[in-house]
């Protein structure tokens, strides 16, 4: 009996020694090499937008770094140009399909292709001067709205909402479209227009000042659309498929993180990207958008959403560059991320058992 126990003890010691030895070799091979430089992607956007919240979360939480990807985030130098072009300013555009694809004049350079979506609804609201308990579109009849310029995606969504509710544009409803965005709030406060179209955080801040009250969320007044997406030149997507996949993986994890965590936690994480916005307002805005279903848990751009938006642009008379879904959207990266990326909250993560560490040679 004693001899048998000696043999068992020797076998156990041999297994442990082999495991530790293999772990040592593995550690030497891993750490004796110089660390490889991460891939780099420069993402540019026209302005900081709350629709891009999953992207900012991925940046702040290190989800891109987990993919061994260095993401440089910057604003376009000329965001007011009629046609958005990347040029040498960046690799990937964080923008909307209306401006980047559908209203792009033909022959203006390499076409862009969308390869991941961030939000499935437009983020704008219609605000009235008084608190409307039960809103109906009849209340807009024979009224004027301070809107955006005709070719912007927000104005296209507003026009579509009015059309779907049988309201004749510039006849039954007047849309004032010649005011710069930075003058809309002041004009409305001074008495111009019966309603005003605004996105958050401006809509919430206007309510806080007592200037207006949100009447309806325009993002839910029409069908879902890919209101914000990652876009790049088709040649870039083909030549840098590894970087694109890493980018979409990190973005997908940011979307899952946002879905799991509270608005207060999200506001704390993305606060550095909105330095002019106080924490309470940022929390309220995120809470409102989450309740309205602005963000999805998947970066996949559904074909129905894409075709919804293109048809809205067409009915608005702004479609200069029609593009089929198969040509305008590359689904490969988003589909793979949706299948493989997961987010496990820290409180649900568990320590590996001793046997799991032996099997995976992970003794850290």
Care to give the gist of this entry?
By secondary structure, the chain is of the alpha/beta class.
Architecture blueprint of SSEs:
Layout: H1 2-32, E1 39-45, H2 53-60, H3 63-66, E2 69-75, E3 92-95, H4 97-102, E4 112-119, E5 124-128, E6 143-146, H5 153-164, E7 173-176, H6 181-189, E8 195-199, H7 202-208, E9 213-217, E10 228-233, H8 234-239, H9 241-260, H10 263-270, H11 279-291, H12 303-315, H13 325-328, H14 332-340, H15 354-360
Parallel strand pairs: 1-2, 1-3, 6-7, 6-8
Antiparallel strand pairs: 3-10, 4-10, 5-8, 5-9
Helix pairs in contact: 2-9, 9-14, 10-11
Description:
- The protein has helices spanning 2-32, 53-60, 63-66, 97-102, 153-164, 181-189, 202-208, 234-239, 241-260, 263-270, 279-291, 303-315, 325-328, 332-340, 354-360; strands spanning 39-45, 69-75, 92-95, 112-119, 124-128, 143-146, 173-176, 195-199, 213-217, 228-233.
- The protein has 364 residues and is α/β, with parallel strands linked by helices.
- It folds into 2 domains: 39-121 and 225-340, 3-Layer(aba) Sandwich (D-Maltodextrin-Binding Protein, domain 2), CATH 3.40.190; 124-220, Periplasmic binding protein-like II (D-Maltodextrin-Binding Protein, domain 2), CATH 3.40.190.10.
- The strands form 2 sheets. It has a 5-stranded mixed sheet.
- Helix 5 links the parallel strand 6 (143-146) and strand 7.
């Amino acid at each position: 009996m004693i001899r048998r126990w000696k043999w068992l003890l020797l076998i156990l010691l041999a297994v442990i020694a082999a495991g530790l030895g293999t772990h040592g070799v593995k550690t030497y091979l891993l750490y004796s090499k110089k660390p490889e430089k991460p891939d780099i992607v420069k993402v540019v956007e026209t302005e900081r937008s709350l629709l891009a919240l999953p992207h900012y979360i991925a940046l702040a939480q290190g989800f891109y770094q987990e993919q061994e990807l260095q993401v440089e985030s910057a604003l376009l130098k000329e965001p007011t140009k009629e046609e958005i072009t990347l040029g040498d300013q960046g690799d990937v555009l964080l923008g909307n399909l209306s401006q980047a694809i559908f209203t792009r004049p033909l022959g203006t350079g390499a076409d862009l292709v969308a390869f991941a979506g961030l939000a499935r609804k437009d983020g704008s609201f219609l605000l009235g001067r008084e608190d409307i308990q039960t809103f109906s579109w009849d209340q807009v009849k024979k009224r004027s709205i301070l809107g955006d310029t005709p070719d912007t995606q927000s104005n296209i969504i507003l026009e579509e909402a009015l059309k779907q509710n049988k309201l004749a544009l510039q006849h039954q409803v007047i849309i004032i479209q010649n005011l710069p965005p930075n003058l809309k709030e002041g004009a409305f406060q001074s008495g111009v227009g019966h309603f005003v179209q605004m996105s958050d955080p401006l809509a919430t801040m206007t309510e806080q000042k007592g200037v207006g009250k949100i009447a309806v969320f325009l993002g839910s007044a029409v069908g879902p659309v890919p209101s914000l997406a990652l876009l790049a030149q088709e040649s870039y997507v083909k030549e840098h498929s590894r970087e694109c996949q890493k980018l979409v993986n990190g973005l997908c994890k940011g979307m899952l993180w946002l879905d799991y965590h509270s608005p207060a936690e999200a506001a704390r994480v993305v606060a550095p990207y909105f330095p002019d916005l106080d924490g309470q307002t940022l929390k309220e805005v995120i809470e409102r958008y989450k309740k309205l279903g602005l963000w999805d848990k998947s970066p996949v751009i559904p074909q129905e959403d894409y075709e919804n938006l293109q048809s809205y642009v067409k009915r608005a008379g702004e479609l200069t560059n029609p593009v089929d879904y198969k040509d305008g959207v590359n689904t490969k990266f988003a589909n793979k991320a949706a299948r493989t990326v997961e987010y496990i909250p820290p409180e649900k993560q568990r320590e590996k058992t001793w046997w799991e560490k032996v099997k995976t040679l992970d003794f850290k």
